[in-house]
Every structure is written in C-alpha cells, then in structure tokens.
Design goal:
By secondary structure, the chain is α/β, with parallel strands linked by helices. The chain contains seven helices and twelve strands.
C-alpha cells in the first residue's frame, strides 16, 4: 500500500481526469475597441443509441484591454479546466493583421494559451462571424485541416521572435475556409501581399513544397513543375538592385484550352 501511495504522489495522480477538462482546439484574437478572444472547444458527446461519439464545437468568448485580459475572460466563462495540449490553430482577425499581429503572437508564445507549434493564420472574419461559424459544427475546422493536407504555406507561433515574417490569410466561404493570400511583414507591419504564383513560390523558398503550378497569361496554359531547382541572380536596374529567382524542373502536367 505504501509503495502504491508513493507512486501516486510522485506521478501527481489526482481525482481529476480528462472528463473534467475541456479541450481547446483553436484560438481566435482580434482588436476592436477592446481585444476580443474566442476559444474554440470541442466536446465529445456519446450517442446511447448508436454507441458512437460525436464532437460538438462551441466558443468561449472574452474581452479586455489587453490580450491577456481577453483570454482570461474567455477562460473564466468555462467552469471546467481548459486543456491546451490539442490546440493547433491560431487565427488573427483583420484589424489585428493590420496592426499588432506580431505583438499578440509573441505574447501567446510565452503564455500557456499558446503552443510553439500552433499554425498561425489571418482570417477575414470578425469575432461574431467566427463564433457563428462554430455553431454550424466542425465544418470550418475540418476545412482548415483539409487545406493543410493539400498544401498550404504554414507559419508557426515559435517563429514570431522578430518583427518580420509571413502570415498566410484565409477567407470564409459558405462556412468553410479557403486560401486567400500571404501577407509579408517588416517592422511588424504589412509590406506586401502575395497571391497565386508568388504564394506558391513562397512555399518553395521556405522548403514547404517540391512542386509548383503556374498559369501563363493570356494563353491560360497551366503546367506543373516538379522538383524545381532555384537559382538567385542579383540584377541592377535604374530603381536599384533586384533579385531574380529562376527555377528549372520537370513539367509533370500541361493543360491548355
């Protein structure tokens, strides 16, 4: 008995189990008149008739003068303990994407609400719209996961140590997520927006892809290049020095009208 009691004390066993905690799957932060936080939680509900378990999504909401106060208010709206071990997504609202994104990410990286390997995305949805998305079930969350499986530029929370970087942006279309753009930041503020071929090029440069699809306009000819090799060449122009990126590879698929 003494041996078992000692083992329990060493391992920190208590009467609290997973059933006493609520898993947070995603965090949403926006800045309006105050900071707004939404914690997307999933609860498993067993079906007595079928024996299957279904997941129900809901949002915990909070507001405050700081990101900390907004998150704390959201956490305190739930009586049970929150578990962030399964939290994989961080969404930033449109206002925060314009100003304050890096400050918010750095804070979350040092807080228990954030996890270093959380994927960070901008989202063109205000707090009320984000909350309404979760009322439709897990469709939105599943659509983000499908985008990631198909290949999506990813930036993680641990990468926000400085004031420059790239944040991928998602748009909401009929309760599902769609890739929209990449926003490039310098000194913590947006400096450029990349879409289409530029967004694909960013994935190549970051080592997140080994193929690229291009469309030649006005011919509307699309082709896929696999295993591209990149070559960088500085070019001097009247406006200053530019960097040319040239690549070669194997054309895998060619589609013409």
């Amino acid at each position: 008995f003494l041996v078992l009691l000692g083992a329990a004390l060493l391992t920190g066993c208590t009467g609290s189990g997973l059933g006493d905690r609520v898993a947070v799957k995603a965090v949403y932060v926006e800045k309006e008149r105050q900071y707004e936080a939404r914690l997307l939680v999933l609860e498993s509900t067993p079906n007595a008739d079928t024996g299957q378990v279904s997941e129900q999504a809901r949002c915990l909401s909070g507001q405050g003068e700081t990101v900390y106060e907004a998150l704390l208010a959201a956490e305190q709206s739930e009586s049970r303990r929150l578990f962030y071990g399964q939290s994989e997504l961080l969404f930033l609202g449109p206002n925060l994407m314009e100003k304050g994104a890096f400050e918010a990410c750095r804070y979350l990286a040092s807080n228990t609400s954030g996890r270093p390997n959380m994927a960070v995305y901008g989202l063109d949805a205000d707090p009320d719209t984000f909350e309404q998305l979760q009322q439709e079930g897990t469709e939105f969350l599943n659509s983000v996961e499908q985008l990631e499986k198909r290949g999506l530029f990813k930036t993680y929370l641990y990468q926000f140590e400085g004031d420059s970087g790239i944040i991928p942006g998602l748009s909401v279309q009929e309760n599902t997520a769609a890739f929209d753009k990449l926003t490039l930041y310098g000194a913590g503020r947006p400096t450029a927006v990349w879409r289409g071929a530029k967004a694909q090029l960013a994935r190549l440069l970051a080592g997140q892809a080994d193929e690229m699809e291009l469309t030649l306009e006005p011919l509307s000819v699309s082709f896929q290049v696999r295993s591209p090799k990149l070559r960088f060449e500085p070019v001097f122009t009247r406006e200053g020095m530019e960097l040319d990126v040239r690549f070669s590879g194997t054309i895998q698929r060619l589609v013409s009208p």
